[in-house]
Amino acid sequence: MDIPAKHILQSKFSNSVLREWQCSNTEIGAHNLMYPLFIAEADDAKECVASLPNVHRIGINLLREYLEPTIKNGLKSVLLFGVLNKLPKDDHATHADSAQNPVIKAIPLLKKWYPELTIACDVCLCPYISHGHCGIIGHDKHIDNSSSCIRIAEVACSYARAGADIVAPSDMMDGRIGAIKSKLREANLISRVSVLSYSAKFQSCMYGPFRDVANSAPSFGDRRCYQLPPGSKGLAFLAAKRDVEEGCDMLMVKPGLFYLDIVKQTKDAFPEYPLFAYQVSGEYAMLFHAAANNVFDLKVAVKESLLAYRRAGVDCIITYFTPMILNDLAKAAKGTNIDDELL
Description:
By secondary structure, the protein is an alpha/beta fold. The protein has 11 helices and 10 strands. The chain has helices spanning about 15-20, 60-70, 100-115, 145-160, 175-185, 210-215, 235-245, 260-270, 280-290, 300-310, 320-335; strands spanning about 35-40, 45-50, 55-60, 75-85, 120-125, 165-170, 195-200, 250-255, 275-280, 315-320. It has an 8-stranded parallel beta barrel with strand order 1-4-5-6-7-8-9-10, surrounded by 7 helices. Helix 4 (about 145-160) links the parallel strand 5 (about 120-125) and strand 6. Helix 4 (about 145-160) crosses helix 5.
């Protein structure tokens, strides 16, 4: 039976965290936070990058120890990014889903260690492709949208087969949600695996530290032809509408804080869809460094930023501050007095 992808509802509430995202309020709990993790190619790696303080590339041999304190504090979901160091990058992004891919290696381990943890995987070619762009370059030296969607759908399905609960395409190619849903249908995974669409991802100056950590900066040009212009509201609406019609399960706005009008616009237009926003690396770095220079108290500033996201309509915030927030939430739940209590 060939049910249209947008009519598949079970993939929207197939585990307890997904069900919580279907319920909106303005409080901040563990289910409102998703922790981005950079999985290093080297199994024993623990690497830091100066532009993104306290964030690491972590190898699978150290991953459990690295995550354990945050898991104990109630972590519900993670977003995985793979980082290559020695494996070759080619024009087809071969290692985006090879057996040696760090995300492919990490998913089964995380499922074994933490069966209740919801695992989302960022789906893009940029960390694995020779030129660092988010799609395949055609003979005319421009992005080949159709070939890119085919490859992105293959990668998404590989993550799903490895055990991912959510695949999250961040490439901004036209039609990739439909391609992924079709591939998941072929694999009989369409009702089990959710698709979180980076539906309104803007071309932004705020991604610099992320690209340092992920080794994903383009080697030429920029991404203005497939990431949305910062001043556009109409394109953001059309992109979300397109992804809804193609069958996505959840929507995202990225970056977050500079685009809260787009957050509200998206939530108002599609209230039945859980809405995510990414507190991107530049936002994290701004808050961290401003606090380090005594501009404000970090916990107070982070609290205000989270409330702004929730007030605008975000159901889940993807943030590098997740361990700090969950630590303070756990202390508050135990009745422990903490200085500058976050929540």
